[in-house]
Design a protein that fits this description.
Strand 1 and strand 2 form a beta hairpin. The protein has one domain. Helix content is 79%, strand content 2%. The longest helix has 44 residues. The protein is built from 9 helices and 2 strands.
């Protein structure tokens, strides 16, 4: 059994490592430190354990709410008193029991471990960080399912669960990087206001981008889990078609963003000057020179 478990663990790692390698390769301009990426992958993996415990607690509470509408057969299959209760139960399990905790924990690791990291200086970096965290989480999750349910589950989750985690990581990282660039542009504007080099604020705080980095991947995850839990031939056909489409979409999206990657600081300054076209491009250097003279 130990040999089989070790074997399953190693094989489960391979698809995740391949996808991590692909994302690392696509980071064309400035590679992120290997140590940082290993740390983020490990933090994502560690996240699975509090997520599992939290999900178990919440799902237990949801099951109690529906205890009078659910019966369990001898083989463990659930039977609902009505289709409406079945849909509501699965909806709550997917949107609250699973997706909310999983996405929230991964987002928290991304935010608290990288928001002020000195290496976070290109727009593609946020995607790299987010994907490594997501795939670390997915790897441990798949290992557990494979240990419990065997090789069939391992193969199925490698072709269905991993692309979902990947695309959620890409979406989260895209909005996270864009939020960071807009945040830096806002900071630059505040510096100019303080120095009275400008008189009006034109850049809004990027609250929408900040929330999108959490809400959109959460929604994608919840819809994925809800659709996968419905026992319907039509829905399952659409679901698996969508899963394989996700692979293509994720690779195309990564390639496009990677090819258009740019320095986040330059992106922020471009945004700043777009909002303040009255400024001369030489003023930033003059402002920094005056700061140095004051010191």
């Amino acid at each position: 059994m130990e040999f089989i478990s070790l074997e399953i663990s190693i094989i489960t790692l391979l698809p995740s490592l391949f996808l991590c390698g692909f994302i690392y390769y696509k980071d064309r301009i400035e590679k992120e430190p290997i140590g940082l990426l290993i740390l983020l992958f490990a933090l994502g993996a560690v996240c699975y354990y509090p997520s599992f415990m939290g999900e178990k607690l919440i799902l237990g509470g949801i099951d109690k709410l529906f205890s009078e509408t659910i019966s369990v057969s001898a083989d463990g299959a659930l039977t609902y008193s009505s289709p409406a209760f079945m849909l509501l139960h699965k909806f709550l399990c997917s949107f609250i029991g699973f997706a909310l905790i999983e996405t929230g924990l991964k987002w928290a690791v991304l935010f608290f471990s990288t928001r002020n990291n000195k290496h976070f200086n290109y727009l593609f970096d946020g995607i790299v960080y987010s994907v490594f965290i997501s795939l670390g989480f997915a790897t441990v999750e798949n290992i557990r399912y494979a240990w419990v349910n065997g090789w069939d589950t391992l193969v199925l989750r490698s072709v269905s669960s991993l692309p979902c985690h990947l695309i959620m990581g890409i979406i989260m990282g895209y909005f996270y990087s864009t939020w960071n660039a807009h945040r830096n542009a806002k900071k630059l504007e505040e510096e100019y206001l303080e120095k009275k080099l400008i008189t009006e604020e034109h850049i809004k705080k990027p609250v929408g981008l900040f929330l999108s980095s959490l809400i959109i991947p959460y929604t994608v995850s919840a819809v994925y889990m809800f659709a996968s839990s419905i026992n319907s031939r039509a829905i399952n056909t659409i679901f698996y078609f969508a899963v394989f489409s996700i692979y293509g979409i994720s690779f195309i999206t990564v390639d496009r963003i990677s090819s258009k990657d740019s320095d986040a600081d330059k992106f922020s300054k471009k945004l700043f000057y777009t909002k303040h076209p009255e400024l001369d491009l030489a003023e930033p250097e003059q402002a920094h020179a005056s700061d140095d003279a004051e010191r």
